[in-house]
């Protein structure tokens, strides 16, 4: 087969040549309903990712370090060549393991989360320990974890983020959009309507081309008023579930605790849009504090890490545009006054596990979340982990698919980029499929889903229920069903 070139979401050119698979266990057809996503199914996005996208991404990592070699030599001296060679060799080996569908290997280096990973890998049933036979979530997370381990175990490059330039470029090329959004969102009054618009802007920024097209304006159009926000109405025709009212009502309820946990997704422009929303929330007392949960290591190309947060704020503070620079300074103040904080980094977010096991596998993190008013999970990967990477009936209720994971009230905001979805009206998924067979991977459709927690019945394993319901009067509610969309915003 002749090589084909496609451009991935970060603009990388990826060769999609296929080599012969030695895997005899693959199945024709798409992933069946009520199964885990997996590279076993040849008509799935998981298969395409493992067969074509991941080798391409690994090739790009190789090119990045090789191209950076002169700069690295200048910084670290000639000895860094040895690191680069070892990293390149290790990535080539990993490509080969993936191509031959080899068993996952244990971690033996300096990885701080190696014990958790090794325990997880050895508990997987043997037939589910190879790239194409495993659940896609396990295989994909394992690949990103292995890639960073090569850097982590090197002498000079243990902090090297091989994706940082992509996140930075994404922000830099979004300058015009950032200016418009910044101007349009200064001093917005506290209304549901404004919150709703900001939520939708934020959602659509998870669809990666947004910064290039969605908010472009002609010269004659006003660039600094609320009409800019009204533009989002044009692009949310394809919002399949919209629980924004429930999210607003959750934040508006009186109660002692107004912390919001924000489980971040991508850096670059998406993080800028996240901050616009979060700034609005703290400025208007919709949250007393926001805790950003970022990734401990470079992850899924564009995911946000602590250095990305620092770089972004610093970039804005020193921007020549006055409005962006003022915004950067304001956000720096929100961070130094701890209105917005970076939560202690947890390796659970860069583990392979779905969120319903968090209570058993990372009780500390689970406890942190129980201590907040609302946890917002942003993006497709977080959604997959909430759903357990499982093909539910598309009309199944969000609350059911969480499989008991309800440390606090939960909101998921994501554009649909893989075959996992729930909470849709009966028949909608079939209609969408008839009209557009790529609807589940295009990122063109979105969901904002919400469910409240049942604090009063929540106990940690081996403990009495230690969360007293009287501490949560406003949050103790009957189980919520699927949202009807007919709710009225408080206030
Ligand atoms: O940035 P997001 O929204 O989490 O998207 C990442 C997702 O995109 C993909 O690359 C394609 O679905 C998946 O690997 C992953 O779930």
TrEMBL record:
It catalyses: beta-D-fructose 6-phosphate = dihydroxyacetone + D-glyceraldehyde 3-phosphate; L-glutamyl-[protein] + S-adenosyl-L-methionine = [protein]-L-glutamate 5-O-methyl ester + S-adenosyl-L-homocysteine; beta-D-fructose 1-phosphate + H2O = D-fructose + phosphate. Its cofactor is Mn(2+); Ni(2+). Residues 49-430 form the Damage-control phosphatase ARMT1-like metal-binding domain. Gene3D superfamilies: 1.20.930.60, Uncharacterised protein PF01937, DUF89, domain 3. Residues 1-33, 471-491 are annotated as: Disordered. Its EC number is 2.1.1.-, 3.1.3.-. Transmembrane segments: none annotated. Metal-dependent phosphatase that shows phosphatase activity against several substrates, including fructose-1-phosphate and fructose-6-phosphate. Its preference for fructose-1-phosphate, a strong glycating agent that causes DNA damage rather than a canonical yeast metabolite, suggests a damage-control function in hexose phosphate metabolism. Has also been shown to have O-methyltransferase activity that methylates glutamate residues of target proteins to form gamma-glutamyl methyl ester residues. Possibly methylates PCNA, suggesting it is involved in the DNA damage response. Belongs to the damage-control phosphatase family. Sugar phosphate phosphatase III subfamily. This is Sugar phosphate phosphatase. It comes from Drosophila rhopaloa. The lineage of its organism: Eukaryota, Metazoa, Ecdysozoa, Arthropoda, Hexapoda.
